[in-house]
Amino acid sequence: MSGHETFEKLNTHCLETICEEPHLIFKSDDFLALDEPMLVWLLKRDDLGMDEIEVWDYTVQWGIGNTENLSSHDVSMWTVDDFIALEKTLHQCIPLIRYFEIAADDYAEKVLPYKKILPKTLKKQLLTFHLKAGSEPPLNALPPRVLCATVAIDSVITNPRHAALIASWIKRRLGSDISEYKFNLILRGSRDGFSNSIFRQMCAHLTSTVVLIKICGSGKIIGGYQAGKWFNNTKRSDILLDEEFSNFTLSRRPRQLSNPEKASNLNFLFSLGTGKNLKSVQLSFAEQRLCNGSQRSNNTHSGPFFYNDLFISDQSNSNRLSWYQCQTYQPNLFNGQIGQHFFQVEEYEVFQAVVHDD
């Protein structure tokens, strides 16, 4: 192992230790001297092991400590200029707080006094969320932090920590604690084959499925979550048809969504980088203004696909005809690169996400 590789391994270990024990940084005497890029990096981490209200408290403390000439230590006595100055200091940090994970009492006591530094749209969303019974966070809200949790998954592509992260993204849309989720392996390319006919036979009738794809050569892992069925003309006697979308739940017998457009609203794409850590994870949602009807297809020859953004070709392990392009789902999972990216699949797996009974 080269010196550079040793340093990178040590660096990764140190950063993961900080995320597992963040109070080593946040409670240190030198916290206010922390560089802004480091604080931003910490706030971006989905595995930062702190309650979100603590994250907010420390972020505000850092902001106040790094803002000059505030008129008072008492926020109730602040002027408009004070709030403008604090917002400027925390401009990069404010979007990284998981506000919808903060309890109503904590929000009222600790966040509302600083509401003038929050964007207007966010304030309106939070007001609705806390005052209107049954309100859900907006679909583009950041997912809950995983807090170093793991979810068991029988995968040769990813690991239990990434599985917990995927479960947290599904939780954002369908509820249940991530510890209740289970990923049942349905298909593995190297075990069952890479033909689209096998995918349709084993997966087309299922709802709530997660596709994991490892790209040949780069080792990059991408995938997506499909809430509804994959094809319009798939029939299966044990699929239950709900009259109302609100009845959709994850169970051992997943319910079929009667409204495919609403099902598509729940879908998302993701990139896990090379799967070595959570630092490079990206999440991409369907922009409704870009959606052209249902994601489901009448094409019985298709394999896994997500609108026009991600398509897995037949026998994808032996050709470079699978592709990704940033079109309906935003943001771009390929570092902003424009156009179609063709690739060969090294391995792919399909899981069904269920809430286990035990």
TrEMBL record:
Stored PROSITE patterns: TLDC (PS51886)
TLDc domain location: 156-358
Source organism, top-level taxon: Eukaryota
Protein's recorded name: 1249_t:CDS:1
Source species taxonomy: Eukaryota, Fungi, Fungi incertae sedis, Mucoromycota, Glomeromycotina
